[in-house]
Amino acid sequence: MVLKVTKSALPPIEKSENPEMVERKGKGHPDSVSDECAEAISRALSKYYLENFGQVFHHNVDKFSIIGGIAKPRFGGGDIVELQKFLAIGRATNQVMVKGSIHYIPIGTIVVDTVRDVIKKTFRNLDPDTQCNIDHVLRPGSLDLVGVFDAGVSATPLANDTSFGVGFAPFSDAEKITLEAELLLNSDKFKDKCPASGEDIKVMTHRLGDEVNVTVCNAMVSKYCPDKAAYVNARDMVKNAVQDLAAKIIPKKKVIVNVNTGDILDKEVYFLTITGTSAENGDDGVVGRGNRASGLITPTNGRPQTLEAAAGKNPINHVGKIYSIMSNEIARKIVAEAKGDAIEVYVRLLSQIGHPINDPWLGDIEVKVAPNADFNKLEKLSKEVAQSVLDDWMGVRKMFLEGKARVW
Amino acid sequence: MVLKVTKSALPPIEKSENPEMVERKGKGHPDSVSDECAEAISRALSKYYLENFGQVFHHNVDKFSIIGGIAKPRFGGGDIVELQKFLAIGRATNQVMVKGSIHYIPIGTIVVDTVRDVIKKTFRNLDPDTQCNIDHVLRPGSLDLVGVFDAGVSATPLANDTSFGVGFAPFSDAEKITLEAELLLNSDKFKDKCPASGEDIKVMTHRLGDEVNVTVCNAMVSKYCPDKAAYVNARDMVKNAVQDLAAKIIPKKKVIVNVNTGDILDKEVYFLTITGTSAENGDDGVVGRGNRASGLITPTNGRPQTLEAAAGKNPINHVGKIYSIMSNEIARKIVAEAKGDAIEVYVRLLSQIGHPINDPWLGDIEVKVAPNADFNKLEKLSKEVAQSVLDDWMGVRKMFLEGKARVW
Amino acid sequence: MVLKVTKSALPPIEKSENPEMVERKGKGHPDSVSDECAEAISRALSKYYLENFGQVFHHNVDKFSIIGGIAKPRFGGGDIVELQKFLAIGRATNQVMVKGSIHYIPIGTIVVDTVRDVIKKTFRNLDPDTQCNIDHVLRPGSLDLVGVFDAGVSATPLANDTSFGVGFAPFSDAEKITLEAELLLNSDKFKDKCPASGEDIKVMTHRLGDEVNVTVCNAMVSKYCPDKAAYVNARDMVKNAVQDLAAKIIPKKKVIVNVNTGDILDKEVYFLTITGTSAENGDDGVVGRGNRASGLITPTNGRPQTLEAAAGKNPINHVGKIYSIMSNEIARKIVAEAKGDAIEVYVRLLSQIGHPINDPWLGDIEVKVAPNADFNKLEKLSKEVAQSVLDDWMGVRKMFLEGKARVW
Amino acid sequence: MVLKVTKSALPPIEKSENPEMVERKGKGHPDSVSDECAEAISRALSKYYLENFGQVFHHNVDKFSIIGGIAKPRFGGGDIVELQKFLAIGRATNQVMVKGSIHYIPIGTIVVDTVRDVIKKTFRNLDPDTQCNIDHVLRPGSLDLVGVFDAGVSATPLANDTSFGVGFAPFSDAEKITLEAELLLNSDKFKDKCPASGEDIKVMTHRLGDEVNVTVCNAMVSKYCPDKAAYVNARDMVKNAVQDLAAKIIPKKKVIVNVNTGDILDKEVYFLTITGTSAENGDDGVVGRGNRASGLITPTNGRPQTLEAAAGKNPINHVGKIYSIMSNEIARKIVAEAKGDAIEVYVRLLSQIGHPINDPWLGDIEVKVAPNADFNKLEKLSKEVAQSVLDDWMGVRKMFLEGKARVW
């Protein structure tokens, strides 16, 4: 491995002249739901494989798609005309030969149980049994990839591909409010207070200097909106909640919050849904098109992003997945351990197919160094942290298997 | 619109200490094929709408998916066990009311004709009629979005959403060889010489200092590989072609080329296919998971990337799509017109839902200024170029309708 | 209408030299479940159309199919590997224009609610939400048929097609035991006593002279069969129940009962299922392939049969459906009102497309006349009964809408 | 086996007072096409299994369905809005273990190749590649049935189930004209002369005394009908062709022919199609819902019918299929060999699961004996003929494998 640690030439993000742009798709957004379903299926498959065969077999559900339905919401109610469809696309080992006899993996049951569970945990007003259709087209894997995969059972797994993983830390104010606003609006506490707020939420933020613009797109639930006034009231509650949160967590910024800016009230255009998600009416979702493993989408100047989808891939040797989590972990740890010397840390890892996953082809750690900090010490620290996280592939795997790694 | 033009604090990319990482998924890669199918369907729908009704109606095919099949290739041939499936997911206006009577759009026919055409143009060894299944689940759009959309028929269209578009220019050496290697390997000229080389190609490049590593993943076509020797020979032809190209277009770099590094010859692990694409055996594809509108995936430090998928969206008011193309266009034009004063240009555009598309919420143009160049002049030039490209939304639309805009 | 009443030249069925052959597919047989789902969807659609628009619109779900799953049952349990799929195939009006605005019919919701309900009412051990997938491909109707259909809204409906309906009465002993055995085995009383007996039951009977052979095929439920002994015991309970029933309802016949004759105990071949239906493992079902509207399949010499499927068709003007019920009704009524003078009655009706449904093209009533009975009186009675049933199309429609007409 | 030969008490069908009712669904009717596809797939699978493994493995495609599309025909042309879908439903062995290694059957390729071939051979104006979607959900078979099946590889196969087969000979005049009219109208000769006549044809006949009513339903092809006059002209050509045929083959009957009686010309209601089949617009088809193995549907008094579908089932031990062909064969042979002594012959066979297929549980041969004929001789002849056909199961299998057995 070549591991480069460099000083960044850029100023700290809060001091940059460049505007910041941040987005988070909430837990009920079709892309996030797709990510969550894919990852949950990967977990369930891994668990089944482990319990029955002592090892995780090849699988990759990273094209899980939600095909939007057709709905006709109206204040107070509405009709589901066509159900939304949850379709697991990908590959999974479906039979295993043990001592000459074939064992069948109950893929169909694993998919339906898992997806129903995700829907129930994600949505308050979407019934998996009467408002959703759950299906899969998971097929056995390519022989080539299985070859690489199987080799990695006992020792350090070998990278299944040449892939990137990128991460950074810490979050800027704009990033903080984007993430936290969604978490708050999708918390039980807020939903209990404002049941009209559906789980399909998108927070889009941009900052220029000290002014932070937060635009929230929140699908409202029709049965809790008997009329236009109730809808507008719910919109206000969302706005106020985010405004209050901003005052608390990023007090120094001037924050402007807007909600459902696409509405045209006098033309009866609202973001109204029956179930709290736009997928009920034609908005589709798919793995890897939403939040990065950081939890955010950050096209801001200087923030790294990869196209690699983490969700749904196998947690054993899929480096695109593993490095996505590790990169962010490395960045966070360096910032933490550097105790102020590293203002910001950016990590990029590139794997080499067929090589142990703790030995990437290339590691690139870029640090915005604090004034007066000792770069040599930082360099050393960074390398140590990076290697220790890379070597702890077993710990990362455990996080995946226990559902503790953020993948969206 | 706030349009910021800033000087970049970073050195030119070729002089940066940071490693570069670049990837291009070739025209036969399942993700690229998905992009191409989605965009071609958007074009075909737009054309149909225009010819029959004088305007483009709402559509969004940006979740087009390829569900991999099952194949058992062997040297000289093999069996397609299950066909790969091309599934158009999304929304499209399927009926139009004209003077009280309903006109039906032949969505099914448009999809199948378009996808067959894309397959034939993309692949030499994949037959759309006997080796593919083509289907769609395109549903009518959400009333909300249709509302915004319809408003944009006559005057400057209004942005359908709050979305990002990012772009940059010019390409670095690593980026050049990545793009050009794929274009060369997928050219008729090379395919005529090396018919075993399938169209599913991935080029992954990283550069550290002057050393450029190019890894090519090329699905080989079994009927042109009667045996292992033929396979290895084809691999060598690919390698040599890229090596020669590098010597020609980036002569100053030290270039190392590797092909199909996942092969393990003595374990009979090859990247062998019947049809030239890994989608024949379980590799799925989906829109928006491959190349950005630049033609590349660039997680490199400093290179901007958006998650927005350009392919398949409507070309009238989908700002995510339109700004993706415009950003790159603006960057290229500034570089060209600045005649050496702008070493690199980065463009970020953020739309405001409901506002005219030539008036973004935020524009961010970052320039790496040449020594001795006049930044004020550059700033003025940049603003003028940006506005003129934004105002030329009709020209960009025309590029989409004529298939001249690069979306992957 | 030409209505012929003729004397049959054949002896009463019980005295015929010819063997009798009778079959009944029980309520859990995939073909019967398909029929039931199709008919229930027709009822639900009719109800929705009536309640919302005051009339029944065109629909035809008479190709409803069950696509068998993959299951691996074992004594005491087993795995559902792939779910069985309930697929509604056919046509249904999905939008209605009222005063210039379009109303959408929630077809998707109607289908899923109805099919879940049928599954719950039919099976004790099949969960619609975790062991079944429910979907539909119902499309708008052909303009031609809609034309004929709409014309029949106010007055006597016009026949939608040229179709047959046939019926007969009364049942022979072999027919009685075939029907009643299934009803008994699928009764709550028997299931409470023998929970291992699944609802997928086929009774196949043949009679030669006084000897009646009854073969019962009954899918056993694995969780109630911890071992081979329990399975064999359940088989015996089925056998004994049918034997006892025969002694009670057809005491004069010598009845031999066999259960699951395909079993080969020493080769571990059983009719074992997890859910009580063979559809869990690849046995498919479809409308119109099971019992006729009489409740039976009767290839016996002299018993009439039509290929017309009654289930799922619209109850307003689909003569194939309406005449199937009317023919049996006419036969039963003539037998009842003739008080012994008509030993057996066979009815055949042939419609004429575009003519009122109470005016068939051809009616053929064949009577096995009792010795000394007055044929002229019988002829008159038969014609009167036939016409009164034909004229009571409103009563028959009501039976369909209330789910009181037997269609399988 | 109990084999009964009995004298029929009924008069010859031509002399019966009862009306006759006969129907034939032509080769382009969705039900017939489904039958043909299913049978062709069974043939193709059998051929593949035999060539690669020396034996026919379990399969059953007898629920093949055609899901109608959506089309908007108009004189001279029209639009295919949604494609019709050809969906193979059923079971087929998809992997075979040979000496410890698994061989995969290319089910997907076999299905698509076969169905394309059937479409091309059946229709002149339906393109399988741009107007049809071909797919399958064939799954591996139930262990139980595989058990019975495998046992029958070497010796006389054992019946896979308890099933009926019925047949009769010869055809009546009404039956002859029904069958021959369809064969004529779907002949190349007629199509060359009247290209507007599509292949989706239904002939429905009833006879009362000497009067024979023939109703032909023929989907017309829009591109050959530039206007109403051309349509009416094509209708007349169909009518005249059938009228001329009747004069030739059943000269003694008074024949009335009607074509497309559902048309209402002044309301613009026609049976017009783009492709020659009603499946283009919502008319679905499925195996086993059309013609019996006799080639006809015959609800006429006295004509036997079974619900058993012959098409798509395995030709080795599926007795429902095999006995359907054998019954008709036995009836025809007895009539032929009895040289006038047997006016009509009816055959019913009932299998016994697990017993050799040449040893049915019950055989019932009913003969309408010519005046002065010797019944004892007929009885003997009938038994001999029956047994010889039953014993020639290898010949019947060959007919299936070579596509020479009529199954619809």
Structure at a glance:
The structure is a homotetramer of 408-residue chains. Chain A has helices spanning 30-53, 107-122, 143-151, 173-185, 188-193, 228-249, 319-337, 375-391, 393-401, and strands at residues 2-7, 20-25, 59-60, 65-67, 70-74, 77-82, 84-92, 95-98, 101-104, 132-139, 164-169, 197-208, 211-221, 254-259, 272-273, 285-286, 342-350, 362-369.
Explain this structure.
The structure is a homotetramer of 408-residue chains. Chain A contains nine helices and 18 strands. With 408 residues, chain A is α+β, with helices and mostly antiparallel strands. The first copy, chain A, folds into three domains: 2-13 and 162-171 and 289-401, S-adenosylmethionine synthetase, C-terminal domain (GMP Synthetase, Chain A, domain 3); 30-143, 2-Layer Sandwich (GMP Synthetase, Chain A, domain 3), CATH 3.30.300.10; 173-285, GMP Synthetase, Chain A, domain 3 (2-Layer Sandwich). The radius of gyration of chain A is 22 Å and the shape is flat. The first copy, chain A, starts with a strand and ends in a 7-residue tail after the last helix. The interface between C and D is large, with 82 and 83 residues.
